[in-house]
Amino acid sequence: MAVDTSGARRSSFETAHGKVECPAFMPVGTRASVKACTPAQVAETGAEVVLANTYHLAFEGRRELVRRAGGLHRMMAWDKTILTDSGGFQVFSLPGKEVTKDGVWLPVLYDEEDGKKKKGERMFLSPEESMAIQRDLGADIVMAFDQCVEYPASRRDLELGVDRTTDWAAKCLGSKLDQHQFLFGIVQGGTENDLRTKSATEVTSMDFPGYAIGGVSVGEGLDLLKKIVAHTAPLLPEDAPRYLMGVGLPEDIVESVERGIDMFDCVIPTRYARFGTLFTRKGKIRISDKKYRKDKYPVDTACACYTCRNFSRMYLRHLHYAKEPLFETLATIHNLHFYQDLMRGIRESIEKGRFAEFKASVKTF
Amino acid sequence: MAVDTSGARRSSFETAHGKVECPAFMPVGTRASVKACTPAQVAETGAEVVLANTYHLAFEGRRELVRRAGGLHRMMAWDKTILTDSGGFQVFSLPGKEVTKDGVWLPVLYDEEDGKKKKGERMFLSPEESMAIQRDLGADIVMAFDQCVEYPASRRDLELGVDRTTDWAAKCLGSKLDQHQFLFGIVQGGTENDLRTKSATEVTSMDFPGYAIGGVSVGEGLDLLKKIVAHTAPLLPEDAPRYLMGVGLPEDIVESVERGIDMFDCVIPTRYARFGTLFTRKGKIRISDKKYRKDKYPVDTACACYTCRNFSRMYLRHLHYAKEPLFETLATIHNLHFYQDLMRGIRESIEKGRFAEFKASVKTF
Predict the structure, then answer these.
(1) pLDDT tens-digit map of B114-167
(2) Minimal Cα–Cα distance from B115 to chain A, Å?
(3) Which residue of A has its CA nearest to B70?
(4) Residues of chain A with C-beta less than 8 angstroms from the C-beta of B32
(5) Domain spans of chain A?
(6) What's this model's pTM, rounded to 2 decimal places?
(7) Using the beta-carbon criterion (under 8 Å), do A38 and B306 form an inter-chain contact?
(8) What is the topology classification, in CATH, of domain B2-266?
């Protein structure tokens, strides 16, 4: 592992499904599909890990489906590394949840497979249940079931969240996983340094093979994010991967890499793409903008993705207005490639001891 | 060119963008995109021609767009053959049109690029205008502007349609196209043998490099289609490609190949795919059917497409229910590949003099 003078780390780790070069960005495939892309297209961008969501794959039919399919890798036809989140983020994001000391009642927001709405139905997610589901899903990296608290939160709620996260982490560690699965611990504590310290101390004492900083990307903004990461990352073991959950924009990523983070995931590149916002080295562009109406250039002239090698901005704008499904695919390929280019740039600059310079070249989006 | 004893023809022709092996099926890319597929994915199915629509690409902004992009090939990144229809089918399909001796007033059904609805606006499509637009689009094969009449139609309407189609064909032939563009004549006449004969005689006297049978696929059904093709195909020159417009299901295709047709186009494989109907050698399947809930097999075990090589029916069913955009892509790839397999089977069987045997093996969908 190379550590830049800035604190940026150039590392890698290996799972049963290959080597992961870090710092790494993991595209999100919530329901076992990175939206609008084939796994071949995702792999072509250079991604080495994709993420899937326990909550969205937990409903009766889907969990059984993945199990019968022989796990997520075979079902999705993704033969590289997969990480599954634990459902802990939904404890923050879903309305109408109910947290108890043993776990969380979550609303079932989606229709069952057979198309019958089951309104008002709830599911109970606990550390044990989350582990059992994630074992069935078969991801290489499995996240502990934690309590992600909203921002802003009272001191009391943050304390409760930290205590539950520690308690649940121990239960997760006691649950049976497959031999190839690595369980990562998660540190909570919101914006309070002493609670982050408490959480990190308790969770790292359990000796997980990797750690995540959770409870971020909940609306705290870049300044607080930087503060949280700067305080928490150094509390984590040097020799284990550090994953900042749900982050973020390119500027969030470089700031966090500088503070010692190795892994990221976020829906931003894929979601922005579907709504017509594309990343370029000169800033982001809205493809619907009139100025691209006659623009024969690719989205980003410095980009080597399939989209930029073959299509013009004006064609993409046409597809966007015509609501052609191909727009979502081409836009997603580009944004994912842009993110992987960012990570490649980060890794190379750390290797050359020039991360600060590279960081300064990254636009704010 | 090989002609099977049945009347089936094994031929090929060449355009500025490559050789086209016939009988050929041409996927439809109405607005300069085969829905939900990249051109690379379409090419991988074996398609050698795609079709785009003059009407849908004629609105102010779009026509200028394609022209500026350097034509459809460059804009769509499709370097094989492209065929554009003339807008004649919209004379049949669009509500509120008004046909005059010089051309057709068509409603502009879609929003302009800038998003402003222009309700009630009309565009005038004439032989001259259709040729001018198709010249800008730059397809290798350009269709004459014809009057496609609905089914059933009065004898008087069919007669008028034939006369206009002949008159307009001459005007198309007198219009300037690019050197690489082939203009195909279209035979009309509905279900009336004598009118088909009249139309074929008049249109073939103008010496086009290829001919289409139009005015089919308008609800007449397979029995009448067979009758029309059996009567009309022999009236066309032996040495020019014969294109049956808008057809069809696999059984329609093999019946028409047997009667001497070389080229087909239809939205069926792509449209069926998006709505969850998939073609297999054993018949079509509705992926939403409960029986595929736990089905680990590919859509068609005999299919070598990307979808069948990598994904199970139960995963596709999951994507369909979850409304994942990937479903449309994977389903379309499969159906297009199925159609190309059908055409490959047809071509090989004609070469071996065993077309009748092959035809008997094709399911009715």
Answers:
(1) 445 566 788 999 999 999 999 999 999 999 999 999 999 999 999 999 999 999
(2) 8
(3) A296
(4) 315, 318
(5) 2-266, 275-334
(6) 0.96
(7) yes
(8) TIM Barrel (3.20.20)
